[in-house]
Amino acid sequence: MSVSKSLTTKEVARLCRVSDATVKRWEDAGLLISERTSGGHRRFRVDEVALFQRKQNLGLKHSHGDESAVKTIIRRGEYKDDSHCALFHSLLAGSEEEASSLLINAYLGGASLARIFDEFVCAAMKCIGELWAKGELTVAQEHLATHTAQNAIHKMRLTLPVPETTGELAMCCGVEGDFHEFPTYLAQMTIENEGWEILNFGANTPLYSFAEEVLLYAPKVICIGATIIPDVERLSRDYKDFRDRIARHSIPVLIGGRAFTDEQLRKRFPAEFYAENFSDVAEIIRRIS
Ligand code: B12
Question: Which pLDDT score, from 0 to 100, does residue 54 have?
Answer without folding.
Answer: 67
